[in-house]
Description:
By secondary structure, the chain is mainly alpha-helical. The chain has 7 helices and 3 strands; from the N terminus they run αααααβααββ. It has a 3-stranded antiparallel beta sheet with strand order 1-3-2, with no helix packed on it. Helix 1 packs across helix 3, helix 2 packs antiparallel against helix 3 (58-77) and helix 4 runs parallel beside helix 6 (120-129). The radius of gyration is 22 Å and the shape is elongated.
Amino acid sequence: MPFLDPQLDGRKAEWVRREHWPRLVTDVAAAVVRMAKDLQLTPPLLRDRLEALGKQAPLLDMGHAVYADYQRALAYRGAVDYDDLIRLALLALQSDGTYLLRLRHRWPFILEDEAQDSSRLQERSLGCWAAPLRAATGCAWEIPTRQSTRPSRLPARGTCGSSGRHPASTNVIYPTPAVPP
């Protein structure tokens, strides 16, 4: 097995192959699928990116193969997974301004619990929904108390960090722009 240290004794190498390798392969493949979907890379686009690397990446190649098979299986069943739902929701927000305005009117606040766990696509969806306000403040509003249902203070510019990600264990509320009924 090319990924194992050649100095591993036979029993230890067999144990790794039997006990750890299947879980590691599953974890790597799941990570590649999750990252590709979050970056909105289809299997062909991911293949192009891997080829552009110009070097061997066997684990990424394996992840790509699993991703391509997984997407084919979803397409065969006419199904989508959770990451596809997030992608399609973002597409709907970006492509239909009237729909976006109706959503902003119906839900004037968006509570994002456990913001540190949001994917890139989830953050983009929230950013699209609350874009005018977030662009003006540079960051989201934080809920100061559990009893509060509306933001009471504007955070200082840059408190979300340059990445735009929120600190761990943060509940964030995004006031959406006011829209006439």
